[in-house]
Every structure is written in structure tokens, then in C-alpha cells.
């Protein structure tokens, strides 16, 4: 039961980080896309941290699924024809971060549990 709660928590954490990422990915500071840099660092660091803190790294996969679900939902156009993620450097950068999250997801699913080596 604890494992399920941990995965649900990681899924919700991924969704929350993705919503925050969508909110700040277009912010600029002195001409530098600081919001996009912040999104990339935080999103990938949390995935890396979950992958290395847990025994199997599967919590990182749950986090990635939550992150990608939110991004996928908001990448689809809205009924009035608008898009939340624009077709510019920041938008394509956010999609690039999403592709890196897919890589982390797949590598977390393929990772085995840490075990002691046999003598």
C-alpha cells in the first residue's frame, strides 16, 4: 500500500511541476529565457532525484508520466483554436524538455532494482 501511495504522490508531483513549467517557460530575464532554463533544471533534477533515491527508480517513471500527461493535455489545441505552448524558442524548448522526460521515463522502466553483487 505504501508503494502505491508513493507512486500516486510522484504522479501528482509530476503533474504539479508540469503545470508550474507551463506557467513560467516563457519568462525572460535580460533577454535570456530564464523560465525555460528553470523548467529544464527543475523538471529533470526532480526526475533524477526520484530515480536515485528509490530502490528501483520506478517512482521517477510515475513522476514522468504525470509530467507528460499534463504537457500532452495542454499541447493539444483548445476549442477556440488557441494554443498554450507557442511555436517559438520557448515552446520548442519545453517540448524538448518533454522529450528528455520521455528518455528518463524509459530508462527508469528498464532499470532493475539495486542488489548486492554475488560473490
Q: What does it look like?
A:
It is a single chain. The protein is mainly alpha-helical and 119 residues long. The chain has one domain. It is built from four helices and no strands.
Topology:
Elements lengths: L1 H23 L9 H20 L4 H18 L13 H22 L9
Q: Would you summarize the structure shown here?
A:
The protein is mainly α and 119 residues long. 70% of the residues lie in helices and 0% in strands.
Keywords summarizing the entry:
about 120 residues; mainly alpha; about 0% strand; globular
Q: Share of helix among residues? A: 55-70%
Task: Average the pLDDT over all residues and give the rounded result.
Answer: 82
Beta strands, count: 0
How are helices and strands ordered from N to C? HHHH
Amino acid at each position: 500500500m505504501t508503494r502505491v501511495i508513493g507512486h500516486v504522490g510522484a504522479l501528482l508531483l509530476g503533474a504539479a511541476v508540469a503545470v508550474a513549467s507551463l506557467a513560467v517557460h516563457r519568462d525572460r530575464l535580460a533577454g535570456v529565457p530564464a523560465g525555460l532554463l528553470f523548467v529544464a533544471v527543475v523538471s529533470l533534477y526532480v526526475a533524477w532525484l526520484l530515480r536515485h533515491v528509490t530502490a528501483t527508480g520506478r517512482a521517477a517513471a510515475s513522476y514522468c508520466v504525470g509530467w507528460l500527461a499534463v504537457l500532452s493535455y495542454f499541447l493539444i489545441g483548445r476549442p477556440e483554436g488557441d494554443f498554450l505552448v507557442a511555436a517559438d524558442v520557448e515552446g520548442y524548448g519545453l517540448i524538448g524538455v518533454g522529450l528528455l522526460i520521455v528518455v528518463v521515463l524509459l530508462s527508469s522502466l528498464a532499470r532493475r532494482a539495486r542488489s548486492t553483487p554475488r560473490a
